[in-house]
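INFO  loader      accepted 1 record
INFO  loader      residues=351
INFO  predictor   begin
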Amino acid sequence: MRARAGRAPEALGAGVSATPATVDVARSYSAGVDQGGTAADLVAAPGDDPTVAALLDTIPVTAEHPRTVVDLPGGLTNRNLKVTTPSATVVVRIPGPGSELLEIDRDAEYRNSTAAAQAGVGPPVVHHRPGHGITVEFLPGRTLTDDDLHDPEILGLVATACRKLHAGPRFVSEFDMFAVQARYREIVATHGFRVPDRYDEFAPTVDRIRAALGARETVPCHNDLLAGNLLAVPDGAGGEEVRIVDYEYSGNNDPCFELGNIWSEATLPRELLDVLIGAYHGRERPDQVARAQLFALMSQYGWTLWASIMDGSSTLDFDFWEWGMEKYERALATFDGPDLEKLLDAAGGVR
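INFO  predictor   done
INFO  writer      dumping tokens
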């Protein structure tokens, strides 16, 4: 999954520079694993690691020689290997330490990734090992950055990709940040992980947000659209289109969560949320903007606990707590700010 504050390399699955023998941080690129290996087991340079070699030999598309293997930057909950053989270039994901507590469903990831590929948004899936992940085609292109998302034209391409995904085959799993946040809170309490000051103080406000948003009308959503999971690739007509990778947290959800989460993850100014929502719907939708802002608040509030879980369980050299606190501080600004009541009222507008 995730990385933002303390910013990791942007990563994965596009024509980004890949550095052997690194395991950097970011949520990115859907790939696969075999033999149940984990990133903690695979610590040598991938081209020299016999465990990696044995794993790749079990995947038909990566078993061919000669082959080159490099780590792609990114992967807090997985290690991502770009593997090139005479026949193919693919990305293989290896689950990372700490991901077990996050209850990531690797088989749902596979089935949802397949659906996303059918929608023309995700990379084609070329291999699946049940319970352990997938291998996908490598998409040549460039990984987007937060700076890219400040460009209204790029936001329009992102909106188009989201519409294609949301109109595609329904996913096999559901994603509801209210339920995810509650489950993460239980995990944090069970394991004694630390929680930011005042965190539980906002539980009644969360109930009000849920009530204001009402029933969700769900579509297939990625649910984790930071810039590093968005790739600009050639569209075949001399321009670019955006493709979406890494479906670990995918599930049917309210599209306003998707759009609000993009806005939140890239820390975009308020006016660019109007641009994103307008591009998605083809017209101005103030009620949808308010809903997206409330879902963005829930995104910040819920992913804060993701950071708490990783802070208490991961062995990676990354400051998860700082990352989570950056998100929590933005949530606090909205919880304590003057506009929350207006958002709650506006979110009830006609959809």
